[in-house]
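Quick start: read one record
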Amino acid sequence: MRVGKIIDIDDIPQARNPMYKLKIDFGPLGVKQCVGGVKSHYTRTQLLGRQVVVVVNLQPKSVAGVTSECMMLAAFDEKDIALLKPDREMPLGTRVA
């Protein structure tokens, strides 16, 4: 798991559920693409520039026709989602344990 920063967001119109295609910067580890089903919980403004905790050692997977290379971590229940983030700014790519 690493700390990344969301640097770009696009809609995925062909997705059955509201989803975003996000580019996440991990500093020295580079930029990865992530598909996240958080569109109904977060606006673009809330996400752009936000640091997030991400699982980065996953095999790429096609979600709604878009390749997802990582997975953001979140706490959730039946009604809501809260993306996990460091409680203060950390260098991009920092390990999370």
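DSSP finds one helix and nine strands in the chain.
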